[in-house]
Amino acid sequence: MEGEAQSPLGLGGTGGDAQPPLRLDGTEGDAQLPSACVSKVLDDDNLLTEIIVRVGFPTSLVRAAGVCRRWLSHASDRAFLRRFRELHPPTLLGFYIKGLHKGATRFVPMLPQPPELAAVIRRTDFRLDTYDSDTNQMLMAVCRNGSVVTSWHKVKSPRDEIAFTVQYPLCYGRDMTILPGLSLTIEESGLGCRAVLSGNKIYAVSSMKDIVVVDLKASISSTIPAPHGVDFELLDTVMLPRADDGSGVYLIHIKELQLHIWLHNGDNWLLVDTICLTEICADLLEDDSSVDFTIIHVGDYNEFVFLEMDQCILYLDIKRRTLRRVSREYDLFEIYPFMMSWPPIFPVLMDSPSRTENGRCTSIEHNEKIKS
In the chain, N or C: fewer CB atoms in 10 Å? Predict the structure, then answer.
């Protein structure tokens, strides 16, 4: 009717006969305050867990755990951490490159990164400290879980003295750890094979057709044959990464521009994937189908592969099926990928109880220093 005012939302009613507002749950009554809505969500453990598991990065997870004891309890739960890692695998921050004849080991960041991890890379000094001025040679051993293990050689005839050190680039101010030294013959120190530790077993390519398996728990060794059609004539076309559950190994093999991924679990080999390199790197091949690929390094759990093609280092993301050039090297000896550490290092609870307000935790006393 003329003179009647429609409600702003067009829901009917007049200015003189206003309808009560709808609640967020759809019923009539006063609208709930935003703080009450937030409490309704955050006080529900299931909803809170679903929120925290989506923060994306271990650094964000640590900050979330610092809110209060309850949040810390959820974030540090083992089942939660397993799920978090499945949703957000540790990110490759970069890689160390060791030249064959010249230059020190240097770090190459993987860019671009999300802002959260780009800040980590900017703040971190990835340079490696020198162990001893009398040391003849430094060799990288492995990068694992945010740590870098290196071996320092003093060559003495007929034996080498080797000291092992662990350095922690992501832990500002943490000193180098020196591990017990070894004394090896020149023949022993010169050994080099593509081996991997999975569970309690070491797997290593040893011959044209066999893989040696050393069971550390049972102190016995055995051999398993290579998958059908795979040979180890060219060792730089094969690599052994660990399986996801630590109960076996993958075998990555390149043949005729095809990258084959095999899984050994139990007594059999299973071909789990085949990637045609010519299809995903057509822009890099430049109509040269005769180019050769070699495998430089394979990430744990078969997540990525570093390849070399005509002095170019390529990064292959197996899950996303993407390949990109990350560096050009004329004197490459080895690559050592450096991953974001996992699991995260959570705040350390102090002896004083957390402060509470109305029965809900509001803050937490924690130690700001990163601890291992």
Answer: N
